[in-house]
Design brief:
The complex is a heterotrimer.
Chain A: H1 15-19, E1 21-22, E2 25-26, H2 27-43, H3 45-56, E3 61-62, H4 68-77, E4 90-91, E5 99-103, H5 111-120, E6 126-130, H6 131-136, E7 158-160, H7 167-182
Parallel strand pairs in A: 3-4, 5-6, 6-7
Antiparallel strand pairs in A: 1-2
Helix pairs in contact in A: 3-7, 4-7
Chain B: H1 2-14, H2 16-53, H3 70-79, H4 91-111, E1 116-119, E2 122-125, H5 134-142, H6 144-155, H7 159-190, H8 195-200, H9 206-209, H10 211-225, H11 236-239, H12 249-274, H13 288-314, H14 320-346
Antiparallel strand pairs in B: 1-2
Helix pairs in contact in B: 1-2, 2-12, 2-13, 3-12, 4-5, 4-6, 4-12, 6-7, 7-10, 7-14, 10-12, 10-14, 12-13
Chain C: H1 4-14, E1 19-26, E2 29-34, H2 39-49, E3 54-63, E4 68-76, E5 84-92, E6 97-99, H3 108-119, E7 122-124, E8 161-164, E9 170-173, H4 178-183, H5 196-201, E10 209-214, E11 226-232, E12 235-242, H6 250-254, H7 262-267, H8 274-289, H9 295-325, H10 330-350, E13 359-360, E14 363-364, H11 372-395, H12 398-404, H13 412-418, H14 423-427, H15 434-437, H16 458-482, E15 501-509, E16 512-520, E17 528-532, H17 534-540, H18 542-545, H19 551-560, H20 565-569
Parallel strand pairs in C: 2-5, 6-7
Antiparallel strand pairs in C: 1-2, 3-4, 4-5, 8-9, 10-11, 11-12, 13-14, 15-16, 16-17
Classes of the chains: A alpha/beta, B mainly alpha, C alpha+beta.
Chain lengths: 190, 350, 570
């Protein structure tokens, strides 16, 4: 229905609440209709623009070095390639992050853990794949333990090629993601 | 000007209850706005000043060269995040923890004087509830944050959160007592527990009259606020963000925000108790002379906050057992020593 | 000091008939094939009578043409002498089985577990033969055997399947590849062993204890690994380690690439200090080819490797400091900024920031550019003054000493027995540095000290790291003074097919002793490359070291080992 796209509503509704009535009408219906109306107002451009402006300027990423590109990720968050200029700071827990950076090789053993982390992140969330290994397996294209096709498991928004890419390319990828967020006008379909 | 003040004092004398109610409501609205905006500036200031210490720029793209709207963008993003409540979490306590944290801050803000206006030769303090025991009340209200931290950690059903919650409790309990004893020592010298009268009685600043108390209070304050070197309850690298591991979206935003709110109010408290509050020479420029006490208090608060950020960027984090050791074995006896000192020389400050 | 031939004659006189085949390569290398029934006695003789107290590693080799498998034990000594003995034990390919050396050498544990899970060689007497690097679904497929059919895996699409285990955990499993199914080599019966979770939960003794995961997603060291700690309150009762979250199978991949392409894979093993890895591989192949590296190229290699060591130490120390001081800690950012200067120096020569692939067989890829020497001479004194500032900063900080002194102390005897190397061993007081023990290139002509510590705790490790930076600066300055002009690559033509042979080459990686054992069978691809990574050995010491400490200290100790799980997992 698209309600939870913008307005935070509780994910599960108690059975108790479903029995409440107000003036003879079930409260739940009234609630949904109201949120529908608010949602329709927000669908109009300006308010969505403000939301996307806020989202693109404060992108928190998960501190998770996985491979060689992980070292460049550390450098990217610190001086001199400071990502804090863009409002982008690293957080430790996936609950407080917006973007998952796949910075390196994804192995078979790590895949379930990674999926867990991805699902713990709240919407809206994005994914950046850094380096050849995250895009297509890279130099390990025929390894028995590396997942070569990460895009089949996670919906990747920005691919940053390189082995490893320079931190300036990380910043460019971040700016591309910001551009993408800015133009995102409707819900991503996955 | 004098006519307005006369009519207000007349109204206060005739109907004290309604006057207090009106002041309360209007003051609460103004104070919560001011304090929240102030906390946003504190967070922005921390990001910028910390970046300066670390030889980099902080936010400088959002809202101009100084990145002043960065906090606005953060707030908008957090408001529009999906709301996740963990399945096995204690839902009531989980939802109420950030609200209790905000309540704690607002309770403190009600009794702290935010400066004064120098009208007609007298300093009129800007405070919502001018209580006779406001020093003790503020200290008690500051410690409600500990309950909020424990609620957050306990209800998350997460191993990291519970460790953060226990550490937060241990830290706060260990440092409330020295802090309270230091406040009592100041009150003994000032012959009053009212924060306004404490400021007015500081002929020499209590930081010089009770240097030991000043040092202990500063350390206890930094611990109470949960800043490095005492932030074990959310030690990021060890326990993955501690008590707010499972919080996301605006709930986490509220918890994070109240930390800095507390920092702002704690610094104001420190300035009032030990650094002379809003005392200072009156600036002779026409409009500025009315708000000059406000400016002095603001300067002192800014310097205190800057020093706290300085400490954050240059000291290591202590281990939780070292923190409690320091609190019970060193801070408490020294603060009692300071109390004795205050009693001794307090009689000279009649 | 005894040399290799004396060792050989001592073994032959003590155990006549045990040595089936032998080769004395030089004063410091001994290759011998030992009868598999006498290997335990020979090793006991070596460790007790001949001072071979350093078990360096073990490699498994699958000789499919001869229908046998080999386990090569690498023995060395902690300073009593410089001989490295490579003892081979043969076993038939059907039901291969070899005696385990865990009774004699404590750190043989992980090497034998790895050989078991990769080749299927059973080690008799091993205390716990569980998989280490592989995910559970690949155990039993013996990936490093030459007839492993599940490789290469070029399928696309989402192959992982979500299943729910009987205990209620959801797991992702990757079913067998089409190649495996077609070849009919799908493993039907996997070996039975208690899973990692079961082994952990067996240790929980009471309700007050719980298992906390520090990883695989963590900020401790750059690279995922699982450190589970069993805590009661704030005290760690026991620690469990699980590797393999970044296991790429480089050793198997290198068997499918040409000799020159293999250099790029050595970069990606320990990516923070990739020049040492390059050097190790190229040195081993040069030994097989018998190439002589020209003098200028040797000096260039030493300069580059020492620069790489400096920047690796900087990021290792800096990252560890964020663990004990939070992300806003200013000296960590200063270290990263200084590291940028060194990296731009390296980048001006090799062209890359992280994965260089600069060393070639018989020389280096290109010469030092113009102006490099002047730029170096400007940067190095600045680095020196900064490092001295850091050493002084940490020496006078009281909270630093509260947090780091007497935390994770390792006594010298324990460190030697556990097989650590590098700064962990040197901080414990043992002066063991590959640049002095097994000197390569121009290190014999250079004057430098081996930096040691006294207590072996975290503070000492950081201190040793920073003082090693000063030593490296001293080495580079000497090289810049002495570097001659000349060719940078050998004039001999490097053949596409390397003649049959084997070599073991050791280098001082910033993390410790790195060794590469390269076997060639005369083809244009390596037959077997075994990497003896330094952090693999140091990692093993983590589990006993973490018993009885606080959680905060556990993180500090794990971080102060300055690890690179990528090189442990390869």
């Amino acid at each position: 229905m698209g309600i939870s796209d913008v307005i935070p509503v509780p994910v599960s509704i108690d059975e108790e609440i479903e029995k409440w009535t107000i003036f003879g009408q079930p409260v739940v219906e009234a609630w949904f209709t109201t949120t529908e109306k608010i949602h329709q107002i927000i669908e109009m451009g300006p308010i969505k623009n403000i939301f996307n402006w806020g989202r693109k300027n404060s992108v928190y990423f998960l501190m998770q070095p996985m491979g060689c590109c992980g070292v460049e990720m550390f450098v990217f968050g610190a001086a001199p390639y400071d990502s804090d200029r863009f409002g982008c700071i690293p957080r430790n827990t996936p609950r407080q992050t917006d973007v998952m950076i796949i910075s390196g090789y994804l192995t078979r053993k790590y895949l379930p853990v990674f999926k867990n982390l991805w699902e713990q992140m709240p919407e809206p969330k994005w994914c950046i794949a850094i380096g050849e290994c995250a895009i297509s397996g890279g130099p390990f294209y025929d390894s028995y333990n590396i997942i070569q096709n990460t895009a089949d498991y996670f919906p990747i928004d920005v691919f940053i090629p390189g082995c490893p890419p320079r931190p300036e390319q990380f910043l460019e990828g971040l700016m591309n993601l910001q551009e993408k967020i800015k133009q995102r006008k409707d819900k991503r379909d996955y | 000007m004098d006519g307005i003040i006369d009519s207000i004092t007349q109204f206060q004398a005739q109907e004290p209850a309604i006057f207090a109610l009106i002041i309360g409501i209007v003051g609460a609205a103004i104070i919560s706005a001011v304090v929240n905006v102030g906390a946003m500036l504190v967070i922005w200031g921390e990001r910028k000043v910390l970046s300066d210490f670390c030889n980099r720029y902080g936010p400088n793209r959002v809202g101009g060269r100084w990145g002043i709207l960065q906090l606005g963008a953060d707030a908008i993003k957090l408001f529009t995040k999906e709301d996740i409540i963990p399945g096995d979490a204690d839902k009531g306590v989980y939802v109420w923890a950030p609200i209790v944290a905000s309540m704690a801050t607002m309770l403190v803000a009600a009794a702290i004087p935010f400066g004064a206006l120098h009208i007609g030769g007298k300093d009129i303090p800007l405070v919502v509830a001018n209580m006779d025991i406001s020093a003790l009340y503020v200290e008690a209200a500051l410690s409600i944050m500990a309950i909020a931290v424990f609620m957050a950690g306990y209800s998350s059903n997460n191993k990291y959160s519970i460790l953060g919650a226990f550490r937060g409790m241990a830290r706060m309990i260990a440092y409330e007592v020295p802090m309270g004893v230091c406040i009592i020592s100041v009150a003994i010298m000032a012959h009053s527990l009212n924060l306004v009268e404490i400021v007015q009685s500081q002929t020499i600043w209590y930081a010089f009259a009770q240097p030991l108390g000043f040092v202990i209070f500063v350390i206890a304050l930094i611990t109470d606020l949960g800043r490095i070197p005492f932030d074990q309850s959310e030690a990021e690298e060890e326990i993955i963000s501690g008590y707010n591991t499972e919080y996301s979206g605006i709930r986490w935003g509220l918890l994070y925000f109240q930390e800095y709110n507390n920092a702002l109010l704690g610094s104001i408290l420190l300035a009032i108790l030990f650094l002379g509050g809003w005392q200072g020479p009156i600036i002779p420029i026409p409009i500025l002379d009315i708000v000059s006490p406000l400016i002095w208090l603001l300067m002192k608060v800014v310097i205190i906050l800057w020093c706290m950020i300085w400490v954050r960027s240059s000291l290591f984090r202590l281990r939780i057992d070292q923190v409690t050791d320091l609190g019970w074995k060193w801070m408490l006896p020294l603060s009692i020593l300071n109390l004795g000192w205050a009693v001794l020389i307090g009689s000279y400050f009649a | 000091m005894i040399n290799a031939s004396e060792v050989l004659s001592s073994i032959q006189s003590a155990f006549p008939g045990a040595v089936l085949d032998s080769r004395v390569e030089s004063d410091r290398r001994l290759w011998a094939t030992i009868d598999s029934k006498k290997i335990l006695d020979v090793c006991k003789h070596l460790s007790t009578k001949l001072d071979f107290d350093h078990y360096s590693g073990a490699a498994g080799v699958d000789w499919i043409a001869r229908n046998e498998m080999e386990v090569v034990e690498i023995m060395a000594s902690h300073g009593a002498h410089q001989v490295v003995a490579m003892l081979k034990v043969k076993t038939p390919r059907e039901n291969p089985s070899v005696k385990s050396l865990t009774g004699l050498y404590w750190n043989a544990n992980w090497y034998e577990r790895e050989i078991w899970e990769m080749f299927g060689i059973n080690f008799e007497g091993h205390p716990g033969q569980y998989p280490l690097l592989l995910p559970d679904e690949l155990v039993g497929a013996w990936p490093w055997r030459k007839d492993f059919k599940g490789y290469p895996d070029l399928t696309t699409g989402e192959r992982a399947v979500q299943i729910t285990t009987p205990e209620g955990y959801t797991e992702l499993h990757v079913p067998p590849t089409p190649a495996e199914v077609e070849a009919g080599t799908v493993v039907k019966e996997r070996p039975k062993y208690p899973s990692f979770r079961e082994r952990e939960e067996k240790e929980i003794k009471s309700d007050a204890e719980m298992i906390m995961h520090l990883g695989p997603q963590h900020a401790m060291v750059p690279g995922p690994f699982l450190l589970d700690i069993l805590v009661e309150g704030e005290r760690v009762k026991k620690a469990f380690l699980d590797l393999g979250y970044i296991h790429k199978g480089i050793e198997k991949i290198m068997e499918n690439r040409s000799w020159l392409q293999g250099i790029t894979y050595t970069d990606r093993m320990c990516y923070v200090a990739s020049l040492s890895n390059n050097e190790c591989y190229c040195g081993a192949v040069e030994k097989i080819l018998g190439l002589e590296v020209p003098l200028r190229a040797q000096y260039i290699r030493v300069i580059m490797e020492e620069l790489s060591r400096i920047q690796s130490h900087l990021i290792g120390t800096g990252e560890f400091l964020t663990l004990v001081a939070g992300v806003g800690y200013a000296p960590w950012q200063y270290m990263i900024m200084d590291r940028e200067k060194i990296i731009s120096l390296i980048e001006s020569v090799t062209g890359a920031r992280l994965t260089h692939t600069f060393v070639r067989f018989g020389g280096v890829r290109n010469d030092l550019p113009e102006g490099f020497v002047e730029q170096c001479r400007k940067v190095l004194p600045f680095m020196k003054s900064r490092t001295e500032e850091f050493i002084e900063l940490f020496a006078q900080d009281p909270i630093y000493s509260l947090r780091m002194e007497n935390i994770g102390s390792i006594a010298p005897e324990t460190a030697k027995r556990m097989g650590c190397s590098g700064r962990v061993l040197r901080a414990a007081g043992v002066a063991y540095d590959m640049r002095k023990e097994d000197p390569i290139l121009v290190y014999p002509d250079l004057d430098f000290k081996v930096v040691t510590g006294t207590r072996g705790d975290s503070a000492d490790r950081i201190d040793v790291t920073l003082r090693e930076i000063l030593e490296s600066i001293h080495i580079i300055e000497q090289c810049l003074d002495k570097i001659p002009s000349g060719p940078i690559k050998t004039e001999a033509k490097i053949p596409k097919k390397v003649p049959a042979g084997e070599a073991y080459y050791r280098v001082e990686d910033p993390r410790g002793e790195m060794g590469m054992y390269v076997i060639s069978d005369g083809g244009d691809k390596p037959y077997r490359v075994k990497v003896r990574g330094p952090f693999y050995a140091t990692f093993q010491t983590l589990t006993p070291l973490l018993e009885g400490v606080y959680i905060a200290d556990a993180v500090a100790i794990a971080g102060s080992m300055d690890g690179c799980p990528s090189e442990a997992d390869r």
